[in-house]
Write a structure and sequence with these properties.
By secondary structure, the chain is α+β, with helices and mostly antiparallel strands. It has two domains: 129 residues, 2,3-Dihydroxybiphenyl 1,2-Dioxygenase, domain 1, CATH 3.10.180; 118 residues, 2,3-Dihydroxybiphenyl 1,2-Dioxygenase, domain 1 (Roll), CATH 3.10.180.10. It is built from four helices and 19 strands. Strands 2, 3, 4, 5, 6, 7, 8, 9 and 10 form a nine-stranded mixed sheet that branches. Helix 2 runs antiparallel to helix 3. It comes from Subtercola boreus. This is VOC domain-containing protein. It holds the Pfam family Glyoxalase_6.
Length: 259
């Protein structure tokens, strides 16, 4: 188990699920990963809503929330948040580099400062400046985030954007015949970018969760009402993984890395 006490700028630090049926999602991910939940009230345009923190052994892993009425029509999805030292300054750089900031930086008292943006290839992501809540406090184990990967129509353009906004260093290598770009934050590999394999596929950040046995996890996901989009397969030198969708159709991956 890997505990995290802080994140450097440019490293993905948090994920949350915005979904059309949060009660169903809570049941699904609890059954799949063994999560417990801590619930917090959250104001919204429709009145008070609940933000659920999925936890492992009492440590925060991910957030879940019901899609707000004004978001009806948006596809439910997992959102990746990237750590920044100054949310306002990072948001300004997003705009300067051709991205779109969806709303001014918001203060969540005692937790952090955040906003949501689109990058230049159309993928949505969050910026998170901690003022108390660092993000995922446990990673790299079963049921916890293990990797974040951007599926992009133009990986080079995406890498240039995140490098300019966050100061990360992109490095590209051939992985299984596909050019794969890793983003290094303070010298540590923290996320990846790969070309979209289907022109109709949306540009999006894909969240990977750790799985002790990806085959068994995929089978369990199907039993819980999810869908196995890609059965477990091996990538030499990387690990074994599967691509799944929850009952609301939200795509995610599970992976056991090679030790």
């Amino acid at each position: 188990m890997s505990f995290v006490e802080s994140y450097v700028q440019g490293a993905p630090c948090w994920i949350d699920l915005v979904t059309t049926d949060v009660d169903s999602a809570r049941t699904f991910y609890s059954g799949l990963f063994g999560w417990s939940y801590d619930d917090y009230p959250m104001p919204s345009s429709a009145g008070e809503m609940t933000y659920s923190m999925g936890t492992i052994d009492g440590r925060n892993v991910a957030g879940l929330m019901q899609q707000a009425p004004e978001m009806v029509g948006d596809a439910p999805s997992w959102q990746t948040y990237i750590a920044v030292d100054d949310a306002e300054a990072a948001a300004e750089r997003v705009t300067e580099e051709g991205g779109t900031v969806l709303f001014p930086v918001d203060e969540i008292p005692g937790s952090g400062r955040m906003t949501i943006a689109f990058d230049t290839v159309g993928a949505k992501f969050g910026l998170w400046q901690t003022t108390g809540h660092i993000g995922s406090a446990v990673v790299n184990q079963h049921g916890a985030p293990i990797w974040h990967e951007l599926q992009a129509p133009d990986p080079a353009a995406a890498a240039a954007f995140y490098s300019a906004v966050l100061g990360v260093e992109p490095k590209t290598a051939d992985v299984g015949g596909i050019p794969y770009t890793e983003l290094f934050a303070s010298g540590k590999s923290s996320a990846g970018i790969m070309p979209k394999q289907d022109a109709d596929q949306p540009s999006t950040w894909l969240v990977y969760f750790g799985a002790d046995n990806p085959d068994e996890t995929a089978t369990k996901a199907a039993e819980l009402g999810g869908t196995v989009l890609e059965p477990a397969f091996d990538i030499p030198g990387i690990g074994r993984m599967a691509v799944l969708a929850d009952p609301q159709g939200v795509v995610f991956a599970v992976m056991r890395g090679e030790s």
